[in-house]
Amino acid sequence: MNRMVNEKIREALVKQPNAFPTMIAQELGVSEWAVVSQLTSEVMQEVDAAAFDKIMQEVTNWGEITFIVRNGSVIAEIKGIVPQGTYGRGYFNFAHDVSPISGHINVANLAHICFVQKAAMGMESLSIQFFDKQGDSMFKIYLGRGEDKKHILAQIDAYNKLQASL
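The line above is the sequence of Heme utilization cystosolic carrier protein HutX; the predicted structure tokens follow.
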């Protein structure tokens, strides 16, 4: 990404601090990763994509989260526990029949993983976000919330411990 594009992204992030990175990416004609990668270190910490297995193992113990997959036409939000997974036929495959979260992840296409703490929809949000080699979002795991709409404290602790361990 060239310096001028990065400067435009950073300007947009300053002007629109509560905007979703996907919105800024669409406005500027860049990938979502191009925007997320320009978030400040207080908001975003990238970790090695090789940490995928450790992350997926840890989040299975967190209880209900929100799993988000987005493409140009759909934002799918699935609430549930992250099921265990195994590798087969070139994919990381979620165990079936234990959670509404199901499917197959092409880990060979994974390029970036980051922990993001950013306001969304007027509330502080904590997430782990996964991006492919093209800079597109593969999926995101957002911490769950209680009936009071606040993050579940045990999940915040687990999130912080996992982030610190990577």
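Note on the example: The radius of gyration is 16 Å. The domain at 41-165 is CATH 3.40.1570.10 (Heme iron utilization protein-like fold).
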